[in-house]
Amino acid sequence: MHYCSNNRPGSPALCSPPSGGWWGWTEVNSLAFATLAMAIGGLGTSLLLMVGIVVAVGLCRRLTRRQLRAHQRLYTFFLEMFSTFQICACTNELCMLGTVDPEPHTALTLTYGFSVLHGLTLTGSTCNPCGALQPMWGGGMSVGMAGLKITAQFVAAVLARMFMRFIWSLEMTEPHFGAFSQGCGNPMQTTEVQAFCIELLFSVVFQLTVLRVESVNPKYRVHLIALLITMLVYAGGNLTGAIFNPALAFSLHPNCFYEKFLSYSLVYWIAPSLGTILVAFIWDEILPRIS
């Protein structure tokens, strides 16, 4: 600690330099300001990138509605593909911002903000294979249509990963340095059994909430869903990533699926899908009998 001397009321404190002299003092402050500037600059560049993705996807969705509405299957496929691409690409970039201070507040704030943005801009799309399984189980969607949506979602997951790898290879900002060459990031920081249970539980909570708030005003519903996602990420993000979306998990961790396919498919594909089917069974079969 450096004590201040010769202070007058209402005047700035005049502090003595550290033992290294004014050169060391300036050097330390320059390093601190440089680090802060890099963090802010990196965050700003990433935000511009993600906003650009949202705008581009919005234009593609509008073009799809104008040109392909008469072709129902193509219309559904491309609308779902573009929407899932937005979520996967933005989430890939958000993962790159995990090193930005302060942690975890920055990441959680961005998670909430972009969850709201996705909810407002991607109306009519599920962007999650589990979101197609639930209505299919209840008879509200044909098997063929559900399969078409799930295919579009996984195509989008692959395209989003390829696109982000290209962006990262340009190294436009500090968090991108070295991201292109990263292998499996090992998102599972617990046992496979615990990870399976976490993703299963989070999928059940998420899908039940989505069904429960269907009657809520859309402008409030989007914030409720975003808040839930942020809470789940806070609760389990350090253990499994709290993804509960098979397509998104594949986009975020393709190398992990390649190296440990059985483990990762069980945790990130089977667990959330099983949770969704469980919710659909409870919602359609058990609750009506109780009420």
TrEMBL record:
Which organism's genome codes for this protein?
A: Patagioenas fasciata monilis
Cellular component (GO) terms are: cytoplasm; membrane
Q: Which GO terms describe its molecular function?
A: channel activity
In Pfam terms, one family for this protein is MIP
Query: What protein name applies here?
Result: Aquaporin
| Subcellular location as annotated | Membrane
Give the record's family classification: Belongs to the MIP/aquaporin (TC 1.A.8) family. AQP11/AQP12 subfamily.
UniProt keyword list: Membrane, Transmembrane, Transmembrane helix, Transport
Gene3D superfamilies linked:
Glycerol uptake facilitator protein (1.20.1080.10)
**What residue intervals traverse the membrane?**
31-59, 225-249, 261-283
Q: How does it sit in the membrane?
A: Multi-pass membrane protein
